[in-house]
Amino acid sequence: MSAHPATIAILGGGTAGWMAACLLAKAWPRTGITVIESPEIGIVGVGEGSTPQLKALFDTLGIAEADWMPAADATYKTGIAFHGWADDTPSYFHPFAGQIDLHTQDAFFASTRARRLGADVPAHPDRFFLNARLAAEGKSPIATPSFPFHIGYGYHFDAHKVGTILRDHALTRGVVHLARRVTDVAVVDGNVAHLSLDGGDTITADLFVDASGFRSVIAQGALGVPFRSFAGNLFADRAVVMPTPRAERLPVQTQATALSAGWAWDIPLTSRTGNGYVYSSRHLSADAAEAELRTHLGLLDADVSVRHLGMKVGRVEASWSANCLAIGLAQGFIEPLEATALHIVQATVESFIAAFACGGREAFNADVARRYEGIRDYIVAHYRLNRRSGDFWRENAANDDLSDDLKAIMSAWFTGRDVAAVIAARDLGGYYAPMSWEVLFAGYGTFPDRARLRPAAPVVDLAGIDRLLDGCLLNFPDHAAALARRMP
Ligand SMILES: Cc1cc2nc3c(=O)[nH]c(=O)nc-3n(C[C@H](O)[C@H](O)[C@H](O)COP(=O)(O)OP(=O)(O)OC[C@H]3O[C@@H](n4cnc5c(N)ncnc54)[C@H](O)[C@@H]3O)c2cc1C
Fold first, then answer.
1. What is the mean pLDDT of residues 40-53?
2. Residue 198 DSSP code
3. pLDDT at res. 89
4. What does the pLDDT look like over 63-87, one tens digit per residue?
5. Probe ligand 1: pick from 19, 23, 46, 238, max atoms within 8 Å of CB?
6. Catalytic entry in 77, 139, 161, 312
7. Above 80 in pLDDT, residue 488?
8. Which among 212, 273, 281, 327 is the best mutation to test ligand 1's pocket, defined by most ligand atoms within 8 Å of the CB?
9. Annotated catalytic, 139?
């Protein structure tokens, strides 16, 4: 097999299609790459929160924050605040990891373990992590140059505008763009032979990338790649989306607020706030979901633009099938609670580039499948461990459709064992690190009932942690000041 295909046709000009075009053009500059997208179909137009992986993407492509953030109305993100997922523990923060956490997470783990074993010691995660403190104070994660530690952070951004930035970048790398609709996919001997376009032309290529969104025109459509649904343990299958004016003081966090049959996101951009309600259609009608989101936003009778979307939750059996790589929504989708979809796109394309050279299709497909399942388990844990009342929530808490990996992690937590050791033994740390898992358990107050805890002094130096984090905070400017510095 050649080290790279001579020609690639990418079907789809959503964020996934353009991300793939940029990464493939960088890795294989002599490959002819064409992106075909239908402006009439358009893009899904959501997907506006990222993990730190998006920073890695822009760094890899050599696109500076000053060049893309203002153009995409972007803000910084230090993590996600979860509100109302437990009746008796109002909120907690899931921070992106950074080097300072190495100085505080052992204290957090020691505290959670002591509390799991019955000692009444403080173990709420927010006190232990720098990114949680930055979020609480509305500070950006961009430290002064003398601050020596790496801080992990992501972004909020306008999906259409990021697509345009990636498209423009790809075009400067020689990628060809066709605004046409694909009307047919010809399959010969199990391989894609060509795409037929409206108006009569055809496109041939050595490799086809299916980035056609939930339609999955090539992978699930023409090639019939089976789809493995996650509906048994992730009930949310619809979303209603409703933007509101921008917040005056821009937060550095996504907010995920539990509602009656799912949760609402709040994503702050410099131009508007993105809001949506991800919910289960088995528990709530579209009209009731819209009314509930309007009430949540204080917009009950307001004239605002509203979009209703379906979500197909699960993954294709094989992301690389015949001469087709499926990415983005065409490949699979896990509901956006931790904003992982674009992270998976990037990981998929980068591992595909590595696997293509050595023909490692089976290992690649197994790795991608594992990634989906590793991320899915963390999302399932949010629902399984919720402590909120209401039918939807109690049904989730009682759902025993759990993977063996998730059962093993939960069992370690509930039996007072070392959660990190289980994650390491099962090689799961690449999806969510022990810090993230323990933050989730502790954030929901998953400890013995308070009445059964025995009085105890803290097992760690909490005042020392406060001093350390307070000192660090002095090195970080306000969010607004950091964004202003990114303006042209
Ligand atoms: C409610 C919701 C919230 C989300 N939140 C997040 C988040 O916070 N963070 C995150 O990382 N991800 C999130 N996602 C996922 C994210 O939106 C997608 O991963 C991302 O937008 C990429 O989508 P895509 O490019 O795969 O598909 P799309 O944006 O749907 O693009 C599909 C492309 O294929 C083209 N196409 C389809 N059929 C044809 C045809 N026959 N001919 C020509 N062109 C065709 C379309 O025109 C379009 O260009 C969310 C998703 C949903 C549903």
1. 95
2. T
3. 79
4. 999 999 999 999 999 999 999 999 9
5. 46
6. 77
7. no
8. 212
9. no
CA nearest neighbour of 325 among 70, 6, 9: 9
Which of 212, 211, 202, 235 lies closest to 380, judged by CA? 235
Residue 453 has what pLDDT? Answer: 97
In sign, the C-alpha dihedral spanning 310, 315, 318, 319 is positive
Query: What is the signed CA dihedral for 474, 480, 481, 486, rounded to 10 degrees?
Result: 130
Q: Position of tokens 């933007």?
A: 243
pLDDT at residue 149 is higher than 80: yes
What are the φ and ψ backbone dihedral angles of 195, each rounded to 5 degrees?
-105, 135
Name the residue type at position 189.
D
Nearest CA to ligand 1 atom 17: 47
Q: Cβ distance 176 to 159 under 8 Å?
A: no
What would the two tokens of residue 315 be? 């993954």
State the distance from the centre of ligand 1 to the C-alpha of 330, rounded, in angstroms: 8
What number does the ligand 1 atom closest to the CA of 254 have?
8
The confidence score (pLDDT) of residue 409 equals: 98
Amino acid at 373: E
CA of residue 53 to ligand 1 center, whole Å? 18
pLDDT at 269 over 60: yes
- Spacing, Cα 43 to ligand 1 middle (Å): 5
Look up the pTM and report it: 0.97
- Average per-residue pLDDT for the chain: 96
What residues have CB less than 8 Å from 15, skipping those under 6 apart? Answer: 43, 47, 159, 162, 163, 166, 328, 342, 345
pLDDT (tens digit per residue) in 352-381: 999 998 889 999 999 999 999 999 999 999
Mutate to test the pocket of ligand 1, among 18, 37, 80 (most ligand atoms within 8 A of CB): 37
The full DSSP string for 175-208 is -EEEE--EEEEEEETTEEEEEEETTS-EEE-SEE
Of the candidates 338, 423, 319, the one whose C-alpha atom is nearest the C-alpha of residue 376 is 338
pLDDT band, residue 1 (cuts 50/70/90): low
Tell me the CA–centroid distance for residue 15 and ligand 1, in Å: 7
162 CA from centroid of ligand 1 (Å): 12
CB atoms inside a 10 Å sphere around CB 203: 18
What the block records as the tokens of 48 is 């506006």
Atom of ligand 1 nearest to the CA of 12: 34
